[in-house]
Every structure is written in structure tokens, then in C-alpha cells.
Design brief:
- 2 copies of one chain form a homodimer.
- Chain A is an alpha/beta fold.
- Chain A is about 35% helix and about 25% strand.
- A 6-stranded mixed beta sheet of chain A has the order 3-2-1-4-7-6, with helices on one face. The first copy, chain A, has a 5-stranded mixed beta sheet with strand order 12-11-10-13-14, sandwiched between helices.
- In chain A, helix 3 packs across helix 11 (about 290-300) and helix 9 crosses helix 10 (about 265-280).
- The first copy, chain A, is globular.
- The interface between A and B is large, with 51 and 51 residues.
């Protein structure tokens, strides 16, 4: 592929996405698999990356590979740095890690970010910083509130082109374990009015209380079902709405600015719907914009 | 056993406790096993009860058996009634269910309670109402705030000898699934300064926020460990303190009255410690006082 400039790799816990990117940020080819870092046997990341690159169209072996995500964590290939917020593209570009590998390509890791909230709680991200910086480039934005929903939802504030702070919400993982491993899941059945019950859960999340109140509110998914106020098929979307609504309400300050949502289409739609009920406007951002950050980092670092 | 009046059975999800009780409420004999209703194969509750009774000292087959707890739920032997709050001893005594069984003894089920909170959320209990009414009899109390910590913690207010309302917090079950099935558990190691880290978790729970803030706060068990601010052996007690503190802060109104804690000694000590940090005084109640309610119900119903 003649105009290829870079191989951009977004390697997370459960997915591996690779892109061949042109010098102007166009995606020339892509490859996606479920080989997240948890699925890599014996930590043989080099073998997986080599196989992945081999499945991309014929590319020059001099193309550098720029990787972001949990591949740079303690559980990944090599622990890359954490850069302290506020941090922008240039702050990351000077802290890239080069990975020694048997591949012919030069392989680099994007550092993660760390921060400390007003509550004194430290927080970290790996991968989302690259997604956000890519979105800023693609949307030509310098400021905004971003949410990256998922297993561990990240809410990040951007000002002057730099990520000034962020907080993680374990919403997706908590939802999954409540569904799969608690008494709430035992009542669940498929089908039914998912939309209406999701909205009902979001509305339930608007009830006031201290943080611990959530431990009570989630139980309503069971009791509403026991009392016949909620069908068994409504339990799952109700619980989903309750948790996502709770997250949004805790994370987003009410203001006139939109919340930028970066997620797959299903999850992005749920967050947009819940944010609307909470009273926020949202903009969905295309996840492919991440490659704009990989490219900008390579350019800034003269790679 | 000549002065035996009743067999009192507290049959919950994970435990089965049986007592031979005298007419004055003394416990003459007891038997305890892990045969909670979840451990009973094919719903053969009659066989388990029969075996259990056979392990009590020789007793007259005319002794009635009074059972409370999840044995009266839809997943139990027979679904007993729910009585609406406010409810006291006499309200329950008129709604006992008799179970048809192959045993020579007459077998009765204590009904559960239901209520609807100020937030409109319905709530239910089965078994705790009997524990609370037993405690009122044993302590000669008519009013108070009770907590029954556990998988599903119950907070109940008592006024004029009747339970006026209550709320369930899924604290114990949420703690267990976070420990056993999420990324938080993967960092945990045994040993270490459990007391100090538990207290630290309780203090972290005092941070303000909407209910959804808990989804962020629990992540601090991971990030504090990653940043070296918390040892791996501190993760579990820290998370326990964070959740228990959050529950207490959401459930208890600050006032001068003590909170009555009904739990096994380990859990009771944790709740007492956390309540102290939150600024509440506590009284630990002996769990055996439950038989006072079984006895009073039998007397009131002329059984």
C-alpha cells in the first residue's frame, strides 16, 4: 500500500483493532479481533501482533506501529508511563515507549494518563486518552466533556486541547456482575419493552441520596418485579437504565455544553438517551477518529 | 424434653437454625447447618426439616414448628404472605401459613413484610421481621432503628412496637461479586493491616456525591493500589469499609438514638466500627433473641 504512513493499534482488554493509516489520517485498511490482552496466552503479544500485521494488506516493513490501550499496562506487553494531567498531544509524544520485538517494524506504546480527583482519589486511563485526542483532531475541538462508556466508563474534561482531569465509573463491569452473579440476574428474562424500562430505570436514578443509596436503588430491580410492577423481561433494561443514569448524573455537571460520547453504536445510543432524560445534550463521536491521535503522536515524535 | 413448648426455625438462603424453646423463651437445644434453601436439592424441604428435627433432643411430636425466613419465599417451600408495614406481632400472628407436610408436627410459616419507601421503591423482607420482633421482646423496646447486615442488609424503623418501614441495601452481595468477579478482586491479597484499611475505606465513603458516585468510588480500591497508596492486602478491607460506610451513611439519619445491630459477631463488629466513624452509637443484639418472636407468634395464634 503506497500511501501508508503508520500502523495504528488500539489494543484493549477484550479487543484488538489495527489500522493502516495514511499521512493525512485516512484509514486505508483495518483488522479487528477479540484478541484483547486477556485473550493472549502466556503473554506472547509479539506473536499476536505479528499475525495481526500479516493480515493487513501488503505493507512496507519500515512502517512504524503505534499502539495504545491496556497493552501498555502492567498486565500487557510492557508497562508504559503514566503522564499526569493536564496533558495533551505533546506531553504524550515525549513519553512514548519503544517495545523491543522480533517484528521488523518499530513498535511504540502511547503512555496512559493519571490524575487525582478533588476527592483525593487517584485515577488512571490507558487508551481513552488516545481516543479523546483523536476526537479533538477530527472535530477540531479544544474543549469539551467526553464520556467513553464501557466496562470502566471514563469521563474526561478537555480544556485548551489538553485533558485536564477524568474519573472512572465501573458501570459496565458492575452491571455485568449484577446480571451474571447476583439475585437480580435470576429474575431476568429476554424480550419485552426494553426501551420503556430502560427509561424507567434512568428516571429512578434521579432519586436523591448519598452514594450508598445506589446499594438500595439497585434492589428495586428485584422488588419491582416481585410486586408485579416490572416484568421479568424488563429487569435487565431497567437495571441498565438505573446504572447508566446514576453514572451520568454523578459525572456530568448540568451545563449548556454537549457531552461527547465515544462508544459503539448500541452503547452510544443508550448513553445519549439517558443523558437526554437527565437533561444533557450529546454528540456521538466516530471511534475511528482515534487514528488521528496515533498519527499526530508519530509526527510529533518524528517517528 | 419436658418443658419444651415450640420448635423455632430460622431458615434462610444459606443457613438453617433450629431451636427447642421453652414456654418462657429459654433455648433448651439448638441445631445449625448450612442447609439454607439454596442447598436443598429438588425442593425437598420436608426431608431436610425431618432430618433436622430428628437431630434435636427427644421431643414430643405434638410440638408445633414455627418457621421464618426465605423458606416462606417463592423459592422456598411455600410462598407465605407479605404483610404491609406498619406491622407488629399481632399483624403477623393473624397471617401465619400452615404447611402441609409428612411430619407429625404442625408446621407454620411466619409471613414476610412489604413496604414502599418515600422514593416509591417497594421493598420486602422475610425473616428479619421475626428477628426484629424477637429483639424488641428481649430488650423490652418499642422504638428504634435496626440494621441486619448481610448479603442484603435491612434497615428498619420501629415505632410503638411495630415495624413502620425498611429499606434493603445489597451491600454484602455487591461486595462479594466485586471481590470474586471484577478487576478489583484480582489485586487482592490476604493479610496486612485489615483494621486500618477498613477504617480508611469508611472515611472514603464520607465523600459527597449523588448515588452514582459509588460507581467511581469503588474504583479507588484499584487505583490506590496501582499508585502504591494501598497495599494488595489492604484492598479487600478498604473496599469492605467503603461499602459498609456508604450503606450506613445513606441509611442512617444522624440522631442521638443508637442503632441496634443484629448480626454475627464479625459483621456486627465491622458495622459498629463503621457506624462509630460515621458518628453513630450502636448496640449489638444477640441473634438468639429471634426465638422470642416465634414463641410470641405461637402464643398469639393459639398454636
Amino acid at each position: 500500500v503506497s500511501n501508508a504512513r503508520l500502523i495504528a493499534v488500539d489494543w484493549g482488554t477484550t479487543a484488538l483493532r489495527s489500522y493502516v493509516v495514511s499521512a493525512t489520517g485516512e484509514i486505508i485498511a483495518r483488522h479487528e479481533s477479540g484478541e484483547g490482552i486477556l485473550a493472549v496466552a502466556k503473554g506472547d503479544f509479539a506473536a499476536v501482533l505479528s499475525r495481526t500485521v500479516a493480515q493487513l494488506p501488503a505493507i512496507d516493513q519500515s512502517l512504524p506501529i503505534m499502539m495504545s490501550g491496556m497493552i501498555g499496562s502492567r498486565q500487557g506487553w510492557l508497562e508504559a508511563a503514566y503522564v499526569r494531567c493536564p496533558a495533551g498531544l505533546l506531553d504524550l509524544a515525549v513519553r512514548l515507549s519503544e517495545v523491543q520485538s522480533p517484528l521488523a517494524h518499530d513498535v511504540f506504546l502511547v503512555p496512559g494518563l493519571d490524575t487525582r480527583g478533588a476527592d483525593g482519589i487517584p485515577d488512571v486511563m490507558r487508551g481513552e486518552e488516545t481516543q479523546i485526542l483523536g476526537a479533538l483532531a477530527a472535530l477540531d475541538l479544544d474543549d469539551g466533556l467526553f464520556v467513553l462508556p464501557g466496562t470502566h466508563s471514563k469521563w474526561a474534561t478537555v480544556s485548551g486541547g489538553r485533558i485536564t482531569g477524568f474519573a472512572t465509573y465501573m458501570t459496565g463491569e458492575v452491571f455485568a456482575v449484577l446480571r451474571d452473579h447476583t439475585i437480580l440476574g435470576r429474575l431476568m428474562a429476554a424480550g419485552g419493552e426494553a426501551d420503556a424500562e430502560f427509561e424507567r430505570g434512568v428516571n429512578a436514578s434521579l432519586a436523591a441520596g448519598a452514594p450508598g443509596q445506589l446499594l438500595h436503588q439497585i434492589f428495586s430491580a428485584r422488588t419491582l418485579c416481585l410486586t408485579g410492577d416490572l416484568t421479568e423481561s424488563g429487569v435487565e433494561p431497567y437495571l441498565s437504565g438505573l446504572l447508566i443514569g446514576s453514572e451520568i448524573r454523578a459525572a456530568a455537571r448540568a451545563n449548556d455544553q454537549p457531552v461527547y460520547i465515544m462508544a459503539g453504536s448500541t452503547l452510544a445510543a443508550l448513553y445519549a438517551k439517558a443523558a437526554g432524560i437527565v437533561g444533557l445534550t450529546t454528540v456521538a463521536v466516530d471511534g475511528d477518529s482515534i487514528v488521528r491521535a496515533h498519527l499526530a503522536l508519530a509526527n510529533a515524535a518524528n517517528i
